[in-house]
Amino acid sequence: MPENFRDQVREELVLTIDENNLLNEWKGQAALMLEYSIQLADAMQEEDEAKARLGMVTAKLDRSIRAEPEQFGLAKATETVVANAINGHKLYVGALEELNEARYRARVLRGAVDAIAHRKASLQGMTDLWLRQWYADPKSSEQPAELREAANGPPTQPPARRIQRRTRQRSTKE
Predict the structure, then answer these.
(1) Distance between CA 38 and CA 35 in Å, rounded?
(2) pLDDT tops 90 at residue 43
(3) SS3 letters across the chain
(4) pTM of the entire structure?
(5) Pair 123, 17: CB distance under 8 Å
(6) pLDDT digits over 86-142, tens only?
(7) Residues whose CB falls within 8 Å of the CB of residue 113, separated by 6 or more in sequence, listed in order
(8) What's CA 128's distance to the chain center, in Å?
(9) pLDDT tens for residues 157-169?
(10) Which residue has the higher pLDDT, 133 or 12?
(11) Does residue 86 contact residue 62 with C-beta atoms inside 8 Å?
(12) Band of pLDDT at residue 24, cut at 50, 70 and 90
């Protein structure tokens, strides 16, 4: 059962990113995270319930063994003997297996949620690269001026110089 669940999550979870369709990838990211976060919450709830059931089975067996140790093949009900009898009982073993399976499901889904978070980081990095024009031509101060101007357009003055000129023009008019 656990391997089937792991394989099922692997098949359903789409982590690949279409670099030519980043907008749609971003649109689907939140829905993907929500879906697997809800599944994780459900699995964690199942784990908590299985843990509570194991506690109840343990308590019932403890009470039964202490009340009638002879029915369980015990001469005397000491702490160690009772604990060993509980651990070997089929009800306890079944409840423990159920708890372990629930924990496994929760861990697999926690891994899926972490993978989706990593997908988001990759998506962010790819978006940043796209905004910087993915494979932009390298720019160097050693390039001839004609090539730099062709790539960047005509040179512009920094904003600080424009402000200084305007203030000088105003002061000369007065």
Answers:
(1) 5
(2) yes
(3) CHHHHHHHHHHHCCCCCCCCCHHHHHHHHHHHHHHHHHHHHHHHHHHHHHHHHHHHHHHHHHHHHHHCHHHHCCCCCCHHHHHHHHHHCHHHHHHHHHHHHHHHHHHHHHHHHHHHHHHHHHHHHHHHHHHCCCCCCCCCCCCCHHHHHHHHCCCCCCHHHHHHHHHHHHHHHC
(4) 0.69
(5) yes
(6) 999 999 999 999 999 999 999 999 999 999 999 999 999 888 888 877 666 666 666
(7) 33, 36, 37, 40
(8) 21
(9) 555 555 555 555 5
(10) 12
(11) yes
(12) confident
- Do 30 and 129 touch, CB atoms closer than 8 A? no
Q: What is the pLDDT of residue 96?
A: 97
Residue type, 23: L
Structural tokens at position 74: 């015990």
Q: Which two tokens stand for residue 65?
A: 């063994």
Residue appearing with tokens 């009638």: 68
* Placement of tokens 């976060």 in the chain: 37
Alpha-carbon dihedral of residues 127, 129, 134, 139, nearest 10 degrees? 150
Residue appearing with tokens 């062709």: 150
Nearest Cα to Cα of residue 127 among 14, 16, 25, 13: 25
pLDDT on residue 173 = 57
